[in-house]
């Protein structure tokens, strides 16, 4: 927490529980419980508590005192607060994963006064108890959802506090700037060295520069988290759907010599260079009076604008008049004719989806594109991963730029305070009540 704030331990009014492992056939199911009533509830189920944070094999009863109904034999872990995930008392039951076992134990928990947890409620309690900040909590959600190695590494770094430490470093530096600014305001008649104000201005410029680099490189982190999007575009019969099928290694799109076969966007997802990618096959670009095909062309142009990279295709003998920005030009059907080495200064990848010529080279080019779009920060700083982070840093940066434009020290000080507040909202230290439901509502049950 920031200096000057008071951390008050958050104790939920209710004891909550959730199945933290997935549904379906499995060997083990983990029921997680947290809240002030956890100790009494665990004693009710197993009798004597096991040693804190040590696994113990125990019988789980409907009522341990009477031992009249045995529910299961489970590994039990007792986590007294504040040294627990949520900061509250809590425990875990590692049960046999039969649906009847889970249902029976859940029923006993409800009888003991617990209720099923809402999505993200465990992590929200951890945040409220100061066990993690808001950026780290979002990293937990991303880690649970991670499908690729790059997503795992990015989420793990965020969960470990890499991004939080960067924002806290900026906040600490800004705090010192604000202290110097307050000195200039409070002691105008004192002969403070001129180096004080110059040092203050230099630090503001340095912070702005660091934030601008972070914002510019932020798209890379967002792409790793959500995936890189390629739009496949070009005129009818250029081979777009055939390319999509080759990338998918299955017949994902209908291939036909009839122009205008593809009317709507078709998406496939996969992994390329360790990054999640989405390829979008779009309608052929041409003038048409067909209302449905015209709508398809409109949607194709929309996907081209939204994509991280455009795969612009054309057939041999049908050189494009225009080249889309950030595109890879692919000249298809080299088995039927020749394609130029470049178009308007842009290199062309010659391929034949019929014979397979050039497809290995094309895959290498696509992998290089993915790596370039998701490369690590040149500054070595952690990448931001969400639009919320980018908006917060942009707001802080704008306040610092506004501070440099102020002639009155008091107005400059106010802009510096606004920048501090923007950084505080990122990590959850100030003014985030309206954000909490949106952030933790994205979590799965049991986190």
UniProtKB/TrEMBL annotation:
Subcellular locations according to the entry: Cytoplasm
Q: What biological processes does GO assign it?
A: tRNA methylation; tRNA wobble uridine modification
Q: Which cofactor does it need?
A: K(+)
Cross-referenced Pfam families, in alphabetical order?
MMR_HSR1 (PF01926), MnmE_helical (PF12631), TrmE_N (PF10396)
* Entry GO CC: cytoplasm
Q: Where does K(+) bind?
A: 237, 256, 258, 261
Where is this protein primarily located?
A: cytoplasm
- Record keywords: Transferase included? no
The record's EC number reads 3.6.-.-
> What is annotated about its quaternary structure and interactions?
Homodimer. Heterotetramer of two MnmE and two MnmG subunits.
Which family is this sequence assigned to?
Belongs to the TRAFAC class TrmE-Era-EngA-EngB-Septin-like GTPase superfamily. TrmE GTPase family.
NCBIfam families reported for this sequence = mnmE_trmE_thdF (TIGR00450), PRK05291.1-3 (NF003661)
Q: What does this protein do?
A: Exhibits a very high intrinsic GTPase hydrolysis rate. Involved in the addition of a carboxymethylaminomethyl (cmnm) group at the wobble position (U34) of certain tRNAs, forming tRNA-cmnm(5)s(2)U34.
Tell me the protein's name.
tRNA modification GTPase MnmE
Q: Which organism is it from?
A: Acetobacter orleanensis
Q: Which gene encodes it?
A: mnmE
């Amino acid at each position: 927490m920031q200096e000057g704030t008071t951390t008050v331990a958050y104790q939920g009014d209710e004891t909550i529980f959730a199945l933290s492992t997935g549904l379906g056939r499995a060997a083990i199911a983990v029921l997680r419980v947290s809240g002030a009533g956890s100790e009494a509830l665990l004693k009710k189920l197993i009798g004597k508590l096991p040693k804190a944070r040590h696994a113990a094999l125990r019988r789980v009863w409907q009522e341990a005192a009477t031992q009249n109904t045995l529910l299961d034999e489970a590994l039990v872990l007792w986590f007294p607060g504040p040294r627990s995930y949520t900061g509250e008392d809590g425990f875990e039951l590692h049960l046999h994963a039969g649906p009847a076992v889970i249902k029976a134990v859940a029923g006993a928990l409800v009888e003991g006064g617990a209720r099923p947890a809402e999505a993200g409620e465990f992590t929200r309690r951890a945040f409220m108890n100061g066990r993690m900040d808001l950026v780290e909590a979002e990293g937990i959600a991303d880690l649970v959802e991670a499908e690729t190695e790059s997503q795992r590494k990015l989420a793990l770094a965020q969960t470990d506090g890499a991004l939080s430490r960067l924002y806290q470093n900026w906040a600490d530096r800004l705090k010192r700037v604000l202290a110097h600014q307050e000195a200039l305001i409070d002691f105008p008649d004192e002969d403070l060295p001129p180096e004080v104000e110059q040092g203050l201005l230099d630090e503001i410029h340095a912070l702005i520069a660091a934030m601008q680099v972070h914002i510019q490189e932020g798209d890379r982190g967002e792409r790793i988290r959500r995936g890189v999007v390629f739009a496949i575009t070009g005129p009818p019969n250029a081979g777009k759907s055939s390319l999509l099928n080759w990338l998918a290694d299955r017949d994902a799109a209908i291939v036909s010599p009839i122009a205008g076969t593809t009317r709507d966007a078709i998406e496939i997802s996969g992994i390329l260079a360790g990054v999640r990618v989405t390829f979008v096959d779009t309608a052929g670009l041409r003038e048409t009076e067909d209302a449905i095909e015209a709508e398809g062309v409109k949607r194709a142009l929309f996907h081209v604008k939204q994509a991280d990279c455009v795969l612009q295709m054309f057939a041999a003998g049908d050189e494009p008049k225009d080249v889309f920005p950030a595109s890879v030009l692919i000249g298809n059907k080299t088995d039927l004719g020749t394609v130029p080495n470049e178009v308007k200064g842009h290199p062309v990848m010659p391929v034949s989806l019929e014979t397979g010529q050039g497809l290995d080279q094309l895959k290498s080019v696509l992998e290089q594109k993915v790596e370039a779009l998701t490369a690590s920060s040149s500054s070595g700083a952690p990448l931001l991963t969400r639009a919320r982070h980018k908006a917060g840093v942009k707001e802080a940066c704008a306040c610092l730029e506004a501070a440099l434009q102020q002639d009155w020290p008091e107005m400059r000080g106010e802009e510096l305070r606004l920048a501090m507040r923007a950084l505080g909202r990122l990590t959850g230290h100030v003014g985030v009540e309206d954000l909490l439901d949106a952030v933790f509502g994205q979590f799965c049950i049991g986190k």
